[in-house]
């Protein structure tokens, strides 16, 4: 069952007969689905309730935020309780076709809202369906940390990875060495349309507004995917290429990009032993995307 249908069945939303308007029943507010950002905001709202388990009573949408003499509208704020006194999560949504530059601007906008709100926002989530960035945040300490996912309701722990084959509840060890349990997403087959959209988004990010020409950016993306598949399936033992008995999946926090850079440079050296040098990723490219 789709997320949209679940939302309708659980009385969270209603959709007009012409499919042009959504009504958020807990706030008794209607919005225009002709607005591309509204569709993304609708999905983010349903994810918060149906996937992450946050009570709908803790959620407020279209919240006015005062920033000096200006007043802005935050898309979604999740509070600690139904009194809406202590904000916990701020969500900023952008249309699906957003560019990387526009998405980065949305991240800055979300943090400006978080700093302007009274109380301490713990998490910032910027979402466009294709792109999703989540941060742990403390404005008093001027601290932000990239996370792999948004913590589920009732916990502040989150695994450094999102997907587990089969999905469902699985244990993991948090950053403090404590055993936790989390609901993970299942690895799934995506449509050609979605895969193409994600490739384009990645290509645009690597192109970086002109740092690489478009064909070079696509070529480097292709190499990066190849390196990832190689590392999952093969290992080098005593100078010989050996298939891995079990596929390896590396996990890195976005706050530890140097760790990933070092691992990728090590992998680059391994690849050069078994394939044509021109097929390997360049150090210049790796430093551009990880530093």
In short:
The strands form four sheets. The chain has a six-stranded mixed β-sheet, sandwiched between helices. A three-stranded antiparallel β-sheet has the order 1-2-3. It has seven helices and 13 strands.
Polypeptide structure, described:
The protein is α+β, with helices and mostly antiparallel strands. It is built from seven helices and 13 strands. The protein has a six-stranded mixed β-sheet, sandwiched between helices. The protein has a three-stranded antiparallel β-sheet with strand order 1-2-3.
Provide key terms for this protein:
alpha+beta; 291 residues; globular; 7 helices; three-stranded antiparallel sheet
Give me the secondary-structure topology.
Layout: H1 3-9, E1 13-15, E2 21-24, E3 29-32, H2 36-51, E4 59-67, E5 70-79, E6 87-93, H3 100-116, E7 123-127, E8 132-138, E9 143-147, E10 168-173, E11 179-184, H4 192-207, H5 214-233, E12 234-237, E13 240-243, H6 257-274, H7 283-290
Parallel strand pairs: 6-7
Antiparallel strand pairs: 1-2, 2-3, 4-5, 5-6, 7-8, 8-9, 10-11, 12-13
């Amino acid at each position: 069952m789709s997320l949209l249908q679940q939302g309708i069945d659980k009385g969270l939303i209603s959709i007009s007969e012409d499919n042009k308007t959504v009504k958020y029943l807990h706030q008794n507010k209607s919005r225009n689905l002709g607005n591309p950002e509204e569709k993304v905001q609708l999905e983010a709202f349903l994810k918060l309730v149906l996937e992450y388990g946050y009570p709908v009573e803790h959620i407020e949408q279209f919240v006015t935020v005062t920033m000096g003499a200006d007043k802005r509208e935050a898309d979604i704020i999740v509070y600690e309780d139904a009194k809406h006194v202590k904000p916990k999560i701020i969500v900023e949504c952008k249309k699906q076709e957003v560019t990387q530059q526009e998405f980065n601007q949305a991240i800055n906008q979300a943090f400006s809202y978080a700093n302007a709100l009274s109380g301490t926002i713990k998490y910032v989530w910027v979402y466009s369906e294709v792109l999703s960035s989540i941060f742990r945040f403390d404005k008093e300490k001027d601290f932000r940390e990239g996370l792999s996912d948004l913590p589920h309701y009732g916990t502040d722990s989150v695994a450094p990875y999102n997907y587990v084959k089969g999905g469902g509840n699985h244990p993991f060890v948090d950053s403090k060495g404590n055993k936790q349990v989390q609901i993970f997403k299942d690895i799934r087959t995506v449509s050609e349309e979605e895969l193409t959209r994600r490739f384009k988004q990645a290509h645009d990010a690597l192109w970086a507004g002109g740092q690489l020409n478009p064909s070079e950016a696509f070529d480097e993306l292709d190499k990066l995917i190849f390196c990832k598949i190689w590392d999952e399936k093969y290992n080098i033992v005593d100078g010989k290429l050996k298939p891995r008995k079990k596929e390896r999946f590396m996990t890195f926090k976005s706050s530890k990009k140097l760790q990933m850079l070092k691992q990728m440079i090590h992998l680059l050296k391994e690849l050069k032993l078994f394939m044509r040098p021109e097929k390997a990723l360049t150090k210049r490219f790796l430093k551009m995307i990880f530093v």
